[in-house]
Amino acid sequence: MATQQEFSDFLSKVELRAYKQALFAVQDEHTALDIVQDSMMKLTEKYADKSPEELPPLFQRILQNTIRDFFRRQKSRSIWITLFSAFSPNNHDEKENDDYDLLEVLPISKDSGFWGNDPHRELEQSQLINLVEKALETLPARQREAFLLRYWEEMDVSETAKVMGCSEGSVKTHCSRAAHTLATLLKEKGVKL
């Protein structure tokens, strides 16, 4: 069982990332804050007896369900808006290999830190982060969810599948499509991969 301090530390640690996930999904700062607060309250109320190791996947599942609940409520309030307008089909002409993961093969220099002492490099990194965030906002909800859980939250395929309530194959497909879409969008903006 997590102590009150461990619970508090966990919530402090995930607060900003959870806010970003919710913001990517709902595109509204106030709604994103409400979703994170609701998710934290649900975790505290229902799972205070869990160990610290169990908290991350539980919280992610609650957060994703709270985001889905928000969209369900929006649909019922906006009966005049066509259900399928928000979920336009994503046409993929190419056959995609589920085992191929673009992000796992990108070259990364081991001796260069993410933020260096070079102001020019820091500016480039900041601009790149902004481009990636804008590109993430364009992804379909399930692709964005899978991508953020795998690469931001660093969950493995199995954990991501449990949080999303789908198969591991679906997680791989969502991640692959998200990575390809992000790579295409970033190339269009002049980012060399």
Give an overview of the whole structure:
- This protein folds into 2 domains: 4-80, Rna Polymerase Sigma Factor, Chain: A (Orthogonal Bundle); 101-188, Arc Repressor Mutant, subunit A.
- The protein is globular.
- It starts with a helix and ends in a 5-residue tail after the last helix.
- Helix 2 packs across helix 3.
- The chain has helices spanning 4-26, 29-46, 55-77, 102-105, 119-138, 141-152, 157-164, 168-188.
- The model is unreliable at 79-97 and 105-116 (pLDDT under 50).
- It contains 8 helices and no strands.
- The longest helix is centred in the first third of the chain and has 23 residues, at 4-26.
- It is mainly α.
Topology at a glance:
Blueprint: H1 4-26, H2 29-46, H3 55-77, H4 102-105, H5 119-138, H6 141-152, H7 157-164, H8 168-188
What is the name of the CATH topology of the largest domain? Arc Repressor Mutant, subunit A
Percentage beta strand: under 5%
Quaternary organisation:
single chain
Query: What is the domain tally?
Result: 2
Q: Give the structural class.
A: mainly alpha
Order of helices and strands: HHHHHHHH
Helix content: 55-70%
Low-confidence stretches: 79-97, 105-116
* N-to-C CA distance: 44 Å
Key structural traits:
single chain; 193 residues; mainly alpha; Rna Polymerase Sigma Factor, Chain: A; Arc Repressor Mutant, subunit A; 0% strand
Quick structural overview:
By secondary structure, the chain is mainly α. The protein folds into two domains: 4-80, Rna Polymerase Sigma Factor, Chain: A; 101-188, Winged helix-like DNA-binding domain superfamily/Winged helix DNA-binding domain (Arc Repressor Mutant, subunit A, Orthogonal Bundle). 67% of the residues lie in helices and 0% in strands.
